[in-house]
């Protein structure tokens, strides 16, 4: 049986937390960024938060359009079963943006007007 050293090994701790941060950074950014959807949230908003929130909103909406693959990939990413590259892969982003375009086109067709700027990415 192996025993642990009495004093903590600082290099192991640094290496561990550096490796762990690579796994949790993206889901953490998604979770924390979602807080900024509420106007009472205070603190400095990280760069790219609005764009990330807009994209995640589009992913969720694409999943609501009965696209099971989108729902599965998003849930697996949020549950840390897959890395964030899963929902940022070019083919997946295109799938999400196509769904957003279809929603916009459907809204234009049903209303006979230009939809609100909510479907456009933040500037």
Explain the overall architecture:
By secondary structure, this protein is mainly alpha-helical. Helix content is 64%, strand content 0%. α1 packs across α2 (49-64) and α2 (49-64) packs across α5 (90-111).
Mean pLDDT: 82
**Beta-strand residue percentage:** under 5%
What is the N-to-C succession of helices and strands?
HHHHH
Number of domains: 1
Oligomer: single chain
- Sketch the major β-sheet: none
Short descriptors:
mainly alpha, 5 helices
Topology:
Blueprint (H helix, E strand, L loop, with lengths): L9 H26 L13 H16 L3 H11 L6 H4 L1 H22 L12
Helix pairs in contact: 1-2, 2-3, 2-5
Summary of the model, kept short:
The chain is mostly helical. Helix content is 64%, strand content 0%.
């Amino acid at each position: 049986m192996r025993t642990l050293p009495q004093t903590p090994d600082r290099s192991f701790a640094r290496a561990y937390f550096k490796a762990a941060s690579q796994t949790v950074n993206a889901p953490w950014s998604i979770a924390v960024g979602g807080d900024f959807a509420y106007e009472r949230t205070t603190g400095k908003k990280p760069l790219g938060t609005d764009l990330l929130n807009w994209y995640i909103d589009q992913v969720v909406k694409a999943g609501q359009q009965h696209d099971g693959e989108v729902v599965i990939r998003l849930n697996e990413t949020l549950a840390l079963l897959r890395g964030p590259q899963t929902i940022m892969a070019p083919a997946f982003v295109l799938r999400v943006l196509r769904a957003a375009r279809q929603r916009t086109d459907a809204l234009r067709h049903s209303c006979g007007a230009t939809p609100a700027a909510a479907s456009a990415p933040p500037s």
